[in-house]
Amino acid sequence: MPYARITGTGGFLPQRIVSNDDLAADLATRGVETSDAWIVERTGIRQRHIAEPGTKTSDLATRAARAALESAGVTAEAIDLIIVATSTPDFIFPSTACLVQANLGVGGAAAFDVQAVCSGFVYALATADAFIRAGRAHHALVIGAEVFSGILDWNDRRTCVLFGDGAGAVVLSASDEPGILAVRLNADGTQHHILCAAGNVVGGQVTGDPFLRMDGQAVFKLAVNSLTRSAREVCADAGIPVSSIDWMVPHQANIRILNFISRKLALPEEKLIVTLDRHANTSAASVPLALDVAWRDGRIRPGQTVLLQGVGGGFTWGSILVKI
Ligand code: ACO
Questions:
Q1: Whose CA is nearest to atom 29 of ligand 1?
Q2: Binning pLDDT at 50, 70 and 90, where does residue 228 land?
Q3: Nearest partner of 157 among 214, 219, 222, judged by Cα
Q4: What are the residue numbers of the active site?
Q5: Where does ligand 1 bind, in terms of residues with CB under 6 Å?
Q6: Measured between alpha carbons, how far is 147 from 163 in angstroms, rounded to an integer?
C-alpha cells in the first residue's frame, strides 16, 4: 500500500489589508464600537486580508493551487483528485473544486468539495490520504479557500473582527516513504448551534439567518479541550510522544486558544506556527496558509514531524501527523 506525502504547498491572500485601526474606523461609521487594543488583547489578531467585492472563492483557490503545483513540481495534468474545503463556495453547485479544475485548464480528475468549516482542510487532507493509500489517486490537490467576508454581519463586533479571506493548498503524492503518519477526525453534531450560518436559499429566497453567529466562550472551551485530546490521540496512534513534534500548525482562530493548548501539551510556544496576527481566521484556509508560510520561510524542513490541527463549526475537529 503506498503512503501519501506532502510534496508542495501554496498560498494566496487578497491584496487589500485591513488593519484593526482601519476596521475600527469603518465600523464606527455604522455605530459599531471596537478598538485595536481590544482585538489584539482578546485574539492576537492585528490585520486581515479582505477580498474585493465580486471575488470568488474559486479565484483564491486557483491562485493557491497554482503555487502548490509549482512548489511540488507537478503539472496540473498529473493531478487525479481535487478536493476543496470551503464553507463559502461560489455556488450551491457545481462544487468549487470543479471550478478550480476548469480554471487550471484540465479535465478528467475527480473533483469535489468538503464542508467541515474551520476543520475543512484537515478533513480534506485525510480524505485525499485515504484515496492515495487505497491506490485510487496518485497526485491530489487539496485546497482550503474562503471568502468569509461575505457571510459576516458587519454590525456584529463579536464576530466580524475575527475573520479574513484567503486560500492555501498542498499537493499530496503517492510515495514509498511514510508522509501522513496518523489521522484523527471527530465531530459532535449536538453542538451545531454554537457556531453556524443557519441560512439557505429556498424558492429563490434566503431563509433563516445567512450570517455567521457564534457563542465565543463555548467555542473557546470546546476548541481547547478537543484539540488537546486530539493531539494526544493522534500521537498515540503513531506511537510517538507529543514532545517529539517539531512544529504544530493549528487552526488560526485565537492566540489565547493556541497558548492554552501548547501549555496543556507541554509543547513550547516556539513550536507553534502562528499567522493569525497577519491573516486573522481564514477558516478552512488557515491551516494550509500557515503551513505554506513556514514551508517557504524554511522553518519546516524534510524529516521533521508536523502536527496539523483543525477545529470549527459542526462542531468538528481533527489532527493529522505528518512526516515532511
Ligand atoms: N470590540 C470591543 N468590545 C467587544 C468586541 C469587540 N470586537 N467583541 C465583544 N466585545 C465586548 C462584548 O460586547 C462584551 O461587552 P459587555 O460585557 O459590555 O457585554 C465584552 O466585550 C466581553 O465579551 P465576550 O464575548 O465575553 O468576550 P470574550 O472574552 O469571550 O472574547 C472572543 C470574545 C474573542 C470571541 C472569545 O470568546 C473567543 O476567542 N472565542 C473563541 C472563538 C473563536 O476564536 N472563534 C473563531 C471562529 S471559531 C473557530 O475558528 C474554531
A1: 42
A2: very high
A3: 214
A4: 118, 251, 281
A5: 34, 38-39, 42-43, 118, 157-158, 161-162, 195, 214, 216-217, 219-220, 223, 251, 253-254, 281, 311-312
A6: 10
Q: What is the pLDDT of residue 318?
A: 98
Q: pLDDT grade, residue 212 (50/70/90)?
A: very high
d(CA 143, CA 124): 8
For residue 310, the surrounding DSSP H or E stretch is strand 305-312
223 Cα nearest atom in ligand 1: 51
Query: pTM (2 decimals)?
Result: 0.97
Which pLDDT belongs to residue 83? 98
User: What architecture is domain 180-323?
Assistant: 3-Layer(aba) Sandwich (3.40)
The hierarchical CATH code for the domain 3-175 is 3.40.47.10
Confidence of residue 182 (pLDDT cuts 50, 70, 90): very high
Q: In the prediction, which pLDDT does 210 show?
A: 93
Domains 3-175 and 180-323 share a fold: yes
268 preceded by cis ω (within 30°)? Answer: no
pLDDT in tens, 63-76: 999 999 999 999 99
**What CA–CA distances, in Å, run from 123 to 1, 96, 115?**
21, 16, 8
Residue closest by Cα to atom 48 of ligand 1: 312
Are 290 and 249 in contact by the 8 Å Cβ rule? The answer is yes
Residue 162 has phi, psi (to 5 degrees) of: -90, -20
Q: Residue 117: phi, psi to the nearest 5?
A: 50, -130
CA distances from 80 to 67, 103, 128, 139 (A): 17, 15, 10, 6
- Mean pLDDT, residues 197-220: 96
What is residue 24's predicted lDDT score, i.e. its pLDDT?
Answer: 98
- Boundaries of every domain in the chain: 3-175, 180-323
- Which residue's CA lies nearest to atom 32 of ligand 1? 216
